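Quality-control log, excerpt.
Job 1 of 2 completed; input and output follow.
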Amino acid sequence: MNDSEPVREQRLGCGMIALAWLVLLGLLYLLFADELDRQFNPNRSLSPQATKDATELVLKQNRSGHYIAPGAINGHSVVFLLDTGATVVSVPAHLAATLGLAAGAQQWVTTANGEVSVHATRIAVLSLGPFHLRNVRANLNPGLSGDAVLLGMSALRRLELTQRGDTLTLHAMAEGK
């Protein structure tokens, strides 16, 4: 046995310990990232099959008190943040091309963060659970840096909303309303 063998074994041992820590940290990340995502969006695995019938959708509040739900714009998956304080659906401008949205006339709107210049657009089909809304008024907002689409009243007014505790139930509008 020469003098270099203990050094080699020590390096190998340190490398194995470092590798074990990396694996442990990776597993912890996966576990907690999934839990954090579930807390942010408790409705993330929502599907039309999960509803009672084709005219109702029940959403749970997230830990911040918001209603987040998966959906689609023009057949492309998005995450909606329901916002009854928003007049229209507000789409982050950087998603326009992906979602097949054309920028129309420039407009100024007042938001919680002040006045911002947006571009008007129309969503051909907006899908949320069992609901498929057509020709929905929206805007492309360059001030929205994330990927969440604010689902405003231009879409929500077409549904009946009932909030009880930490759940929000959306119903299809009754005929004649």
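Job 2 of 2 completed; input and output follow.
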Amino acid sequence: MIPARYEASRFPGKLMKDLSGKPVIQRTYEAAVATALFDEVYVVTDSEIIYKAIAQAGGAVLMSQKEHQCGSDRLAEAAEDLDADIIVNVQGDEPFIDAPSLEKLIAIYQADTENNVDVASPMVRIHEEENVSNPNNVKVITDSNNNALYFSRSVIPFPRDTSEKIAYYKHVGVYAFRKGALMDFYNHSITPLEAAEKIEAIRYLEMGKTIKMVEIDKPVIGIDTEEDLRKAILYYEKHS
């Protein structure tokens, strides 16, 4: 399921911006379908513009009936009556999501025979200092079993001892939920740390849910700014 909100605060209307001949949201939908990993793929939106674009392209699209604060809430409303065990959330502004990254998330649940994992999500190693300090990049720290401890827009961990070698990881905004965990999230009010950081993944942690992180090698190109869109166009034209 691909949550698609038209009014993005940093880059309004970004999902309908042209990415080499098609809207960003259509590119993302087609990339998710092309992985051939899912029984069904839907765009879930609050926008008539996005709804019409996906429908006219022959895609599956659902219209939200309520106002929502975040993508998880939007998907939960749409998924409430669906017969599904695992629901994967691919962000609408990530048209370059690839099958290997999603396969790693699915593999977590295949191995989780005791149903200990509530949510699975990818992370990618950050090497550039400017990307570590950039608050638009959500960082994640984990325990020794790769369970998320915390997410932040700040630099975590803070390098007080600069002689210590620290690996920094960016959280990639893709999730695989057990349906029960997603519905619990939907029925829970916004939590204090989530509200402070504006990171929905924190609500799961504050609720006591387990988020299993998996490292991926290929950075996912999200489109948050006009500069990101220019980079995405160059990347698409180079690799298509």
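Post-run check on job 2. The chain has a mean pLDDT of 92.
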